[in-house]
């Protein structure tokens, strides 16, 4: 039976919805906050900022991460910048324009109210981060400097060279550790959440495994916040850190939290290409490079000359040719698909013919090497360290790679999931980006959710929980959840097959990238679903996990994560199959214009799909949240 999803969007004009919400939200008095406990899983920008903010308010917070330190969370990998509508360049930017760019960038498949709030809160984040000491780039006169990013015609991206994520994370990490020092945050590093515990239908705690000792632990709270990032590692080869996974949100999904738009995953256009069969990770090169770098391939697919030997007239600057208004700063989905077109047409370059050129020769000639070095020096150094090539002297080679998850747990305007007491923030939820994320909005969403939204919306929920006693971790529901976790662990260790979890992930990732990646088709998706079902059966009988449960065992960790991927992957394909249109990162080959662009169907598919677990990964229940546009009329998304 399909549920009616209540998005809880406040009344009033779009520009007043968030302030109206804050005016009427329930509060918890300072004396009562110390009686309440909150679990925050994840210490990236969303998790660290949320835990620090809630502790600062007086709540007792338990913070969990599987890394050895909160500052190793994957937010460090975001390089290019963070967006904010401050209009420092006086080039016509505003909150409304940023809202519209984000809505259009997501191909009109996100909620207006959430997207507007993201733009509205953006300016506050820059002030917050500057106060924390984040070393944003500055103009000669001391003003903060901006650059442009894909899908926009203004400069609104604040940056700290090519390490913006790392610098912002250090700011939130400092705030978090300050609260650890005061005793308001209890930090559990090297702990992985393995299940969510519900008591009388409410999220009341988690089961976690201590990754150093193997001990399975119970932790209770009045509310649980998941800030565990995205699931791009499901493709195996991705820009994500090796440990990134979907287990926290997937196990919450199996307890009743709906998964929204799982097939909307972003393939990033500027990554280092795969160089060999045994590679386990791809490296992200910041999209900011597209500000000054020009993307091209040889016009002749049989051209074997070195890049610098190919004259200008024999190069195809295909983004500039196809999208003159935006050129090399076309949105990510379009830039990635265009690169794939060139590679599929046989014009790919490099040893495996799987890349395109990103060329800085014109920019170096125009501005000088020192300016380019100042803007992107650490990225050029990283490129040389990995490839041995000096990109000041010859073009970089880049290729599309799996990156960001626009899909995630369904949340309402308050960031509540469909389980009372369970909230999801940052990339773990689906809320702000629609079918494609504009560059430099991921850091923004993570920080805005943690610093500026959750402290209000969680308090609105906790106001009704004051009379609830401290959660009893000896409750039968904790017993049940712990036993289920231990049974699964035992199952992995006793299978005694022939393939490692990593080998299974590799096979699964290849299947997904081919059939549910940059392009999808009915035939391909139906085949992928069948192949994934076969892989899942093989995983149950042919997995090998060496070692024991009572020790450090990275293979055991991987097994749990890949088990979840085996179910999530099928849902991704089911979601992509039922959406018979092309929108943003979801490109169905049957639904395209004569020019090969995405063809949206607003009559039949103007909704977010919210999938409900039905005790069988092959038979989920589809719930639809209809997208209602009161301010903007969705239009054909053109960057020409």
TrEMBL record:
Residues 38-443 form the FAD-dependent oxidoreductase 2 FAD-binding domain. Residues 508-639 form the Fumarate reductase/succinate dehydrogenase flavoprotein-like C-terminal domain. Its cofactor is FAD. InterPro entries: FAD-dep_OxRdtase_2_FAD-bd, FAD/NAD-bd_sf, Fum_R/Succ_DH_flav-like_C_sf, Fum_Rdtase/Succ_DH_flav-like_C, SdhA/FrdA/AprA, Succ_DH/Fum_Rdt_flav_su, Succ_DH/fumarate_Rdtase_cat_sf. Keywords: Flavoprotein, Oxidoreductase. It comes from the Bacteria. This is Fumarate reductase/succinate dehydrogenase flavoprotein subunit.
């Amino acid at each position: 039976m399909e549920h009616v999803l209540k998005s809880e969007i406040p009344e009033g004009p779009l520009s007043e919805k968030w302030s109206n919400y804050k005016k009427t939200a329930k509060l918890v008095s300072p004396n009562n906050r110390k009686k309440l406990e909150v679990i925050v899983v994840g210490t990236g920008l969303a998790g660290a900022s949320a835990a620090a903010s809630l502790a600062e308010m007086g709540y007792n917070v338990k913070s969990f991460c599987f890394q050895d330190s909160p500052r190793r969370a994957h937010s460090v990998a975001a390089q290019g910048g963070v967006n904010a509508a401050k209009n420092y360049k006086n080039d016509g930017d505003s909150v409304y324009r940023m809202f519209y760019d984000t809505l259009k960038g997501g191909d009109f498949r996100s909620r207006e109210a959430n997207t507007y709030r993201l733009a509205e809160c953006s300016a506050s984040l820059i002030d917050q981060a500057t106060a924390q000491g984040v070393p944003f780039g500055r103009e000669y006169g001391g003003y903060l400097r901006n650059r442009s990013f894909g899908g926009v015609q203004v400069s609104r991206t604040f940056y700290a060279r090519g390490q913006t994520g790392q610098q912002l994370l250090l700011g939130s990490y400092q705030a978090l550790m300050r609260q650890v020092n005061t005793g308001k945050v209890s930090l559990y590093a090297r702990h992985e959440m393995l299940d969510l515990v519900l008591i009388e239908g409410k999220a009341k705690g988690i089961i976690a495994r201590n990754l150093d000792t193997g001990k399975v632990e119970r932790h209770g709270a009045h509310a649980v916040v998941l800030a565990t990032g995205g699931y791009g590692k499901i493709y195996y080869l991705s820009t994500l850190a090796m440990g990134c996974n979907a287990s926290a949100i997937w196990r919450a999904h199996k307890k009743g939290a709906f998964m929204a738009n799982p097939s909307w995953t972003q393939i990033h256009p500027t990554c280092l290409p795969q160089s060999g069969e045994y590679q386990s990770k791809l490296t992200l090169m910041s999209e900011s490079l597209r500000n000054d770098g020009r993307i091209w391939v040889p016009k002749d697919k049989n051209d074997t000359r070195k890049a610098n030997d190919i004259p200008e007239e024999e190069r195809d600057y295909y983004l500039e040719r196809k999208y003159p208004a935006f050129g090399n700063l076309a949105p990510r989905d379009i830039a990635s698909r265009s690169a794939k077109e060139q590679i599929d047409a046989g014009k790919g370059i490099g040893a495996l013919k799987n890349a395109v050129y990103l060329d800085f020769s014109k920019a170096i000639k125009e501005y000088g090497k020192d300016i380019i070095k100042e803007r992107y020096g650490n990225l050029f150094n990283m490129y040389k360290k990995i490839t041995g090539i000096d990109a000041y002297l010859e073009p970089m080679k880049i290729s599309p790679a799996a990156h960001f998850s626009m899909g995630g747990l369904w949340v309402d305007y308050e960031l509540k999931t469909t389980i009372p007491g369970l909230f999801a923030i940052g990339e773990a939820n689906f809320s702000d980006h629609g079918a494609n994320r504009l560059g430099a909005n991921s850091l923004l969403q993570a920080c805005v959710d943690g610093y500026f939204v959750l402290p209000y919306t969680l308090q609105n929920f906790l106001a009704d929980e004051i009379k609830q006693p401290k959660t009893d971790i000896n409750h039968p529901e904790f017993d049940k959840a712990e036993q289920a976790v231990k049974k699964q662990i035992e199952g992995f260790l006793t299978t005694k097959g022939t393939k490692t979890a990593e080998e299974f992930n590799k096979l699964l990732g290849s299947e997904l990238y081919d059939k549910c990646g940059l392009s999808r088709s009915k035939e391909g998706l139906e085949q992928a679903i069948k192949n994934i079902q076969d892989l899942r059966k093989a995983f149950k009988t042919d997995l090998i996990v060496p070692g024991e449960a009572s020790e450090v065992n990275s293979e055991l960790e991987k097994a749990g994560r890949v088990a979840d991927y085996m179910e999530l992957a099928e849902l991704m394909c089911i979601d992509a199959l039922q959406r018979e249109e092309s929108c943003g990162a979801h490109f169905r080959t049957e639904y395209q214009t004569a020019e090969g662009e995405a063809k949206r169907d607003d009559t039949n598919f103007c909704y977010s799909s919210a999938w409900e677990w039905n005790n069988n990964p092959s038979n989920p229940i589809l719930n639809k949240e209809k997208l209602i546009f009161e301010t903007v009329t969705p239009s054909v998304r053109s960057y020409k």
